[in-house]
Design brief:
Helix content of chain A: over 70%
Order of helices and strands of chain B: HHHHHEEHHHHHHHHHHHHHHHH
Shape of chain A: globular
Number of helices of chain B: 21
Radius of gyration of chain A: 23 Å
Largest sheet of chain B: 2 strands, antiparallel
Radius of gyration of chain B: 23 Å
Number of domains of chain B: 1
Strand content of chain A: under 5%
Order of helices and strands of chain A: HHHHHHHHH
Strand order of the largest sheet of chain B: 1-2
Distance between the termini of chain A: 56 Å
Oligomer: heterodimer
CATH architecture of the domain at 1-79 in chain A: Up-down Bundle
Largest interface: A-B, 55 and 65 residues
Largest sheet of chain A: none
Strand content of chain B: under 5%
Structural class of chain B: mainly alpha
């Protein structure tokens, strides 16, 4: 059963990932990316990680995709802008890189004893209690605030830097400080 | 039901163990002491941001202008003070002999991390000093600059001290984020913002590789802690192919961060686009931190020589890295030959210097590489001084809101500013690695370690690349000393003592280090905790 779900979702994931990078219209790419995220979360469920599955849908499928689509709509690209050509040499390089990465990973997975052995693991029986509880929000919360407190708190610095940067880069310039040409649309004068 | 559930449970310590361990004594004072320098940086950064935020005048009368200038002075002073305090804390932690662990083994303080921390703090101090008049000239004295520099420094210190894959990745992301923002700091300049965006996209891409690699290393060993990973590899429990793939991707990710050859494409653009003080800051601190962590990571993962027939993961990695090192040295120095802009030339030569550092790392991985880690650390010190000083000078000699970037711009500097020209001469000679300066010893130590480890080819390529590099460093010297000036050269009238101080201090330090290379700096770094 697990294998069947994995096979079907694997094929669909590969297909949707390929479609994401080949679509001309970025909105289609974004929607297909949602499909990809949902299938990923299905795989987390198969791997008995309900928390990860939910987070995957909430964060990637929800929050990040909404932002993506928002930005795409705001940019409102015209036909010509979407038609921008990428140099063939660059495409070739990217393709070669992807193939190389694929070969490396395929080799690693294929020749890994640990992964080969995992195929024989029987996942049908009852799950050990400790493992079953490991996926619970409560346990994850406890772990985050005890053992993993340093990286957890440090993440806030990372996010803080990102916020400072976003505000700093987008803040309205004062008129007397403007060096570049005036933007076409007059921005509302306001100091943040 | 074998290993997958058990390692999930024991290493991420979800499940039963967490509940039992929540107790008031979970985080002790010792934990905070271990990361004290980073905490000082974070506190100063936040303080400066708040100070700037709440006192910045909204109207633009002369009165508020005046207040602003005294406010900037206060911010500059506090920023430098914070750096000095952090440096003092790092010095204090250097005294302790034994490596210590903190925050549930997330942090490891040993003489290696303390030494690299000190170099990073030194770089930060000089950058902040140089920033004083640079920012004034560009009318960009916002508290955000100091805040970002301090946060970046804090995350670099934690990066160097990290003893866990999660912390490693978080810290590198944080310092990269700050670096992207510093690149686009001059938000009114199109070039700066564009360079920042390019850096951001390629940097995020490389972080993906790094994360992929670290995850595979976790998959191969079932461990997140560096010491445990080392044990698992040494005990032969690690899954060889996953480990190899993981290490390869980690090297790719870190290769981006340090700007090694096939992954260098962001570097010249970002270095050119960033304001010169930020370029100086990034070029030394980010590189020092990344090189140090790469070195420690690869050393910890070093396997004992495998049975005959199969090459060990370390051997494969070491041969890949030597190819990278050769390509990086040759590429960086050859392309630097063709540049007309001094800033771009310095960017490509920074790639070349990454190549020399990679030689040191390769030497450290092989047998007979005991000298190599010290050599790498020693290299970082003069490199920090030279790089910051020369980027400061680009800004210091700038005019009309621009840096002085072309070779021709430096004609006749020796007649109008003889002292400055002399300092620049010392710095360039040190870059090229000519004797009475520290740059010579730095290269000598690296090449000596390479030869001791049997990597004669690497050393020969390095020497060849250094000879090539003589051309473009001396080209600038020729412009300074042997070409007449077309116009009167002088520093920007806004420039104050601070930039001159950075340049002079760096030049003097380079000569002193060059005359007395045995200042026993290296011996302080002996214990590279195994």
């Amino acid at each position: 059963m697990d294998a069947l779900v994995f096979l079907i979702s694997g094929v669909l994931m590969t297909a949707s990932a390929l479609l994401v990078v080949t679509r001309k219209n970025p909105v289609y790419s974004a929607i297909l990316l949602v499909v990809f995220f949902l299938l990923t979360s299905l795989n987390f469920l198969v791997l008995r990680s309900p928390f990860l599955a939910v987070i995957q849908v909430l964060v990637y499928g929800g929050a990040i995709m909404v932002l993506f689509v928002f930005v795409l709509m705001l940019l409102n690209l015209t036909e010509e802008e979407l038609d921008e050509k990428v140099e063939p040499g660059r495409k070739l390089l990217a393709g070669a890189g992807s193939v190389l990465l694929f070969v490396l990973l395929a080799w690693a997975i294929n020749s890994s004893d640990r992964i080969q052995a995992a195929g024989e693991t029987d996942l049908t029986g009852p799950v050990k209690e400790s493992v079953a509880r490991a996926g619970e929000t409560r346990e994850i919360g406890k772990a985050l605030f005890s053992e993993h407190i340093l990286p957890f708190e440090f993440t806030s610095i990372l996010i803080f830097i990102a916020i400072i940067g976003a505000i700093y880069l987008t803040k309205t310039r004062r008129a007397d400080h403007r060096r570049t040409a005036e933007p076409a649309v007059k921005q509302p004068e306001e100091s943040a | 039901m074998d290993h997958i559930p058990t390692f999930l449970q024991s290493k991420l310590s979800l499940g039963q163990s967490a509940a039992a361990e929540i107790s008031p004594g979970l985080v002790s004072a010792g934990d905070f002491q271990a990361i004290l320098p980073a905490l000082v940086f974070i506190a100063t950064g936040t303080l400066l941001l708040m100070l700037d935020c709440f006192t910045r005048g909204l109207s633009h009368t002369d009165e508020t202008r005046k207040n602003r200038s005294s406010l900037s002075t206060a911010i500059n002073f506090l920023g430098l003070l914070g750096t000095v305090v952090a440096g003092a804390c790092a010095c204090a932690s250097m005294e302790q002999a034994d490596p210590s662990l903190a925050f549930q083994n997330y942090i490891r303080v040993d003489s290696f991390s303390s030494a690299v921390s000190l170099i990073i703090i030194l770089g930060t101090f000089f950058s902040l000093l140089a920033a004083i008049d640079y920012l004034k000239r560009f009318d960009a004295e916002h508290g955000e600059f100091h805040c970002l520099v301090h946060y970046a420094a804090a995350s670099m210190l934690l990066f160097v001290q990290a003893n866990n894959l999660i912390m490693l990745f978080l810290a590198v992301e944080t310092l990269s984020m700050a670096a992207y923002l510093l690149t686009s700091y001059l938000r009114d300049s199109r070039r700066s913002v564009e360079g920042g965006l390019k850096y951001f996209i390629l940097g995020s891409f490389s972080s993906g590789f790094l994360l992929f690699g670290l995850t595979l290393v976790f998959g191969a060993t079932g461990e997140l802690e560096l010491q445990e990973i080392a044990k698992s590899i040494a005990g032969g429990e690690a899954d060889r192919s996953l480990l190899l793939a993981g290490m390869a991707l980690t090297v790719v990710g870190m290769g981006f961060k340090v700007g090694a050859f096939p992954f260098h494409s962001w570097l010249p653009d970002a270095y050119e686009a960033a304001p010169s003080v930020a370029t100086g800051f990034m070029s030394v601190t980010v590189k020092s931190a990344a090189i140090a962590v790469l070195l420690r990571f690869l050393l910890l993962a070093a396997e004992p020589a495998g049975e005959a027939g199969t090459a060990s993961v370390t051997e494969i990695l070491s041969s890949v890295l030597s190819l990278l090192a050769i390509a990086t040295m040759l590429f960086g120095n050859l392309v630097a030959l063709m540049q007309n802009s001094v800033k771009r030339m310095l960017a490509y030569s920074a790639i070349g210097h990454t190549g020399y550092l990679l030689v040191g790392i390769v030497a450290a991985l092989g047998p007979g590489g005991e000298l190599a880690p010290d050599a790498v650390i020693f290299y970082l010190l003069p490199y920090t001084l030279m790089s910051i000083a020369v980027f400061t000078l680009l800004g210091y000699m700038g005019r009309d809101g621009k840096d002085r970037e072309l070779f021709e711009d430096y004609r006749g500097l020796s007649t109008s500013r003889p002292a400055l020209a002399l300092c620049l001469l010392v710095i360039l000679v040190s870059f090229a690695g000519i004797p009475p300066t520290a740059g010579f010893w730095a290269k000598l130590y690296i090449f000596r370690a390479a030869i001791a480890g049997g990597h004669t080819w690497l050393a020969l390529t390095g020497i060849l690349a250094s000879i090539v590099s003589l051309y473009f460093y001396l080209r600038l010297v020729v412009n300074i000393y042997m070409r007449p000036a077309e116009e009167e050269l002088d520093a920007d009238p806004d420039s104050s003592l601070a930039s001159g101080l950075v340049i002079t201090a760096a030049a003097v330090a380079l000569v002193i280090l060059g005359l007395f290379p045995d200042l026993e700096f290296g011996s302080l770094i002996k214990a590279l905790g195994k």
